[in-house]
Amino acid sequence: MSVPVKNNSKSAIIGMLNYEWIVMNISYFLFLAVLAILYIANGHLTDKSIRKINSTKKEIKQLQFEYKTLKADLMLKSESINIEKAMAPYGLQVSKEMSIHIPLEKRFELVNEKNKAK
Fold this sequence. Notes:
By secondary structure, this protein is mainly alpha-helical.
């Protein structure tokens, strides 16, 4: 019976890292390098996308605040009292008389009469 001989682990590692072994596995090393480059590029693209999303969220929030402010201002300016105050310098006032309703048939008759008069 022979006794198995244990190889020293250092010599086994050094034996694997010789020139021939590296040349035989160069395609594998290139594949790993390409994977590492793709992984790094993916991380950069993800960071860029997240930054763009965050800036867009901030812009949307700012535009929502601006919209609400403008809407409130418009509601305030469109109240009848504020409209009367705004039109007072031009001499426009709210009529105290009721408006007259002209039926549709009479409107066409009035238009036809004006056209004939011309």
